[in-house]
């Protein structure tokens, strides 16, 4: 059974259709990369999977359970099963690193502060920030702030982690520390859907890669198939341009 499944999902912003019949599945513990030009619908998929955008048509299933986007209770359940990390860290500047990681599990999920405190400490140690618990965001580098954002997402105990261009706002020398964190999560078996323009990283970490254009999945396959021997002309054109630069 697929951990995550989209079946003919379409979505729009107003009159503009941004997803057009999207279908794919992600196995439990699999990392799937989403690549494609800007405006192709990659980030919109993540918005649907966190309940921020309701699909017009199609079906979304998590662990075989169909999500009814018309029921607020099911949207809340979906949000409890997924967590998203955006390219902008969105940390609270008036809270310490530890407080930033703890706030959603305690305030939104209503979990005991003592339990969350221990988990937050462990997660911050996991992402290499055990010495920054009482620091404030403006005392951290961009890479460190993004790792705090990843720890914050993991503290929600999601089944599926969604990563939306988490390195695009970073200076090049800070990218590797964030990618190392994501690489470790993949090795531990976290189910992940990653939107990124870091083609080398997507190729390395993904079990499969979906190339998107114009709101559609144009081609889906193993990284070597997508990057070395794409079957579709649109994929070939995109990959050729990206790898030349």
- What's the SSE pattern? EEEHEEHEHHHEHEHEEHH
CATH superfamily of the domain at 4-90 and 161-244: P-loop containing nucleotide triphosphate hydrolases
Largest sheet: number of strands, sense, barrel closure = 6 strands, mixed
Helical content stands at 25-40%
**Cα end-to-end separation:** 39 Å
Give start-end ranges of low-pLDDT stretches.
none
Which class of secondary structure composition applies to the elements? alpha/beta
Keywords, please?
single chain, 245 residues, alpha/beta, Rossmann fold, six-stranded mixed beta sheet, four-stranded antiparallel beta sheet, 9 helices
Characterization of this structure:
The protein has 245 residues and is an alpha/beta fold. The chain has a domain at 4-90 and 161-244: 3-Layer(aba) Sandwich (Rossmann fold). It contains nine helices and ten strands. The protein has helices spanning 42-49, 72-81, 97-107, 113-126, 142-154, 172-187, 199-205, 223-228, 233-244; strands at 4-13, 16-26, 31-35, 57-62, 65-66, 82-85, 160-164, 191-195, 208-213, 216-221. The strands form two sheets. A six-stranded mixed β-sheet has the order 6-7-8-3-9-10, with helices on both faces. A hairpin with a 2-residue loop joins strand 9 and strand 10. It is globular and about 50 Å long. It starts with a strand and ends with a helix. The model has no long low-confidence stretch (mean pLDDT 93).
Concise account of the structure shown:
The protein has 245 residues and is α/β, with parallel strands linked by helices. It has helices at residues 42-49, 72-81, 97-107, 113-126, 142-154, 172-187, 199-205, 223-228, 233-244, and strands at residues 4-13, 16-26, 31-35, 57-62, 65-66, 82-85, 160-164, 191-195, 208-213, 216-221.
């Amino acid at each position: 059974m697929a951990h995550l499944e989209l079946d003919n999902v379409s979505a729009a912003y107003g009159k503009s259709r941004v997803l057009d019949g999207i279908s794919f599945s992600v196995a439990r513990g699999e990392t799937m990369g989403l690549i494609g030009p800007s405006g192709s619908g990659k980030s919109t998929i993540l918005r649907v999977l966190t309940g921020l955008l309701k699909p017009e048509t199609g079906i979304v299933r998590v662990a075989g359970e169909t999500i009814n986007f018309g029921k607020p209770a099911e949207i809340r359940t979906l949000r409890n099963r997924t967590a998203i990390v955006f390219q902008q860290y969105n940390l609270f500047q008036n809270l310490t690193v530890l407080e930033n990681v703890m706030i959603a599990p305690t305030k939104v999920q209503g979990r005991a502060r003592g339990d969350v405190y221990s988990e937050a400490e462990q997660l911050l140690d996991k992402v290499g920030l055990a010495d920054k618990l009482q620091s404030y965001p403006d005392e951290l580098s961009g890479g460190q702030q993004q790792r705090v954002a990843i720890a914050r997402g993991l503290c929600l105990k999601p089944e599926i982690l969604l990563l939306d261009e988490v390195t695009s706002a970073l200076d090049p020398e800070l990218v590797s520390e964030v990618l190392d964190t994501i690489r470790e999560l993949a090795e531990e078996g976290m189910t992940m859907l990653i939107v990124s323009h870091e083609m080398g990283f997507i190729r390395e970490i993904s079990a499969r890669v979906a190339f998107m254009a114009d709101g559609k999945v144009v081609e889906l396959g193993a990284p070597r198939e997508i990057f070395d021997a794409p079957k579709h002309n649109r994929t070939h054109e995109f990959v050729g341009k990206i790898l030349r630069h």
